[in-house]
Specification:
By secondary structure, the protein is α+β, with helices and mostly antiparallel strands. The protein contains one helix and four strands, in the order E-E-H-E-E. The structure holds zinc ion (ZN). Zinc ion binds next to loops.
Amino acid sequence: MTILNKYSLCPNCASHTYHRTRRKGLLERILHSVFFISPYRCNTCDERYFRFRLPVHPAEKPPHHHAA
Ligand SMILES: [Zn+2]
């Protein structure tokens, strides 16, 4: 199962055009409501994959103050 973050391209053809597709089954409903992951389908190659609906922030660096 491929799960991409919000801004990733299609894993198969690197297209950035895709549409949300219908969720099927309990697992995908759980992914949708608990993990904010939805199934999408590529407009170009018809590959189906999962994508986070929320932006994924890069891990913030903790402030690194070296106290003198
Ligand atoms: Zn594709």
